[in-house]
Amino acid sequence: MDWDEEEGMETTMEEEESDHRYAGPEDVACDVCNGRKQRALKSCLSCLVSYCEQHLQPHHGSPAFEKHELVDSSKDLQENIALRQQCVYTAENAEKQRKLAAIRLKIQQRIQERDKNVKLYYLEMEAISDSAAETVEDSEKIFTELTRVIEKKRDYVNHKIRSLRQIEKNRVKELQKKIEQEIADLKWKDSELQKLAHTEDENAFLQKLPSLSQPGTPTDTSSIPSLQDFKDVTESLTKVERNVGEVLRENSTDFKMAGTKVEVLLSPQEPSIRLGGVTGRWSSSMLTVCPNVNVDTRWTCRTDKIKEEQSSVNSWDKGTMGSNCT
What we know:
This protein is mainly α. It has helices at about 5-20, 55-60, 75-195, 200-215, 230-250; strands spanning about 40-45, 50, 70, 260-265, 270-275, 280, 305-310, 310. Among the domains are: about 10-75, CATH 4.10.830; about 155-230; about 260-325, no CATH class. It is rod-shaped. The chain starts with a helix and ends in a 14-residue tail after the last strand. InterPro entries: E3_ubiq-ligase_TRIM/RNF, TRIM8/14/16/25/29/45/65_CC.
């Protein structure tokens, strides 16, 4: 083969190879080439463009295109991209639905818990109302009993005071009669002595003088009771009033539902109220007037069972009229 033929063959091969780089009817053409377009090797899903080998080089060498996703060239690039986006959207939507379902499940569980709390609070309010109503009823019973005891003791004290008054008046009246009789006897003796002073009968003088010179035994006036005795009774009752009032003011006005432990002890025999370690008790023996008041007039008023933490109100006895009351 001569040189011309060989050169012609090489030219033909180059033309065929050059024709092979260009896009045919069935090939995907490069979207960047001007004029006759070369066949595209890759399509970029980020750029939405197909590139030939020459125009694809920036995607391999530039950092700006590192995150671009390259796929084999395709005529249906838009459809593939749309389908790919649909798949991505479906996956993302499924993930969102999963997260939303998890969040809703937590919310529904929280709602169920709160519903239980609401029901518990409702039951608690009913329990509080029932307890308060029961406590009010018990309080009425306690204060009614306290009032009854106080009124009973008041009547008893007043009765004993009136009895004491009559006894003392009778005793003073008896003493008054004795003293009046003593005065009458002394006046008679004084009159007889005055007559005797003017008599001239020596024998009569000597006979009468010894009897008239004896004044007799004077009546003892030290046993007359003082009005201070009744004042002492009033002072004693005032102490009872003050002590009971202090217990009521300190313990019955500071009840709290929280913060301070309140315990109401209800006993038919001895109703009591306990608040934070302080206890007030009342009983039928709070005020005692001795039933065996006699001529010697023994009188005792006593406060019992009014107690506070670490201290107590000492029971007291009034002894100005005696001290042997039981």
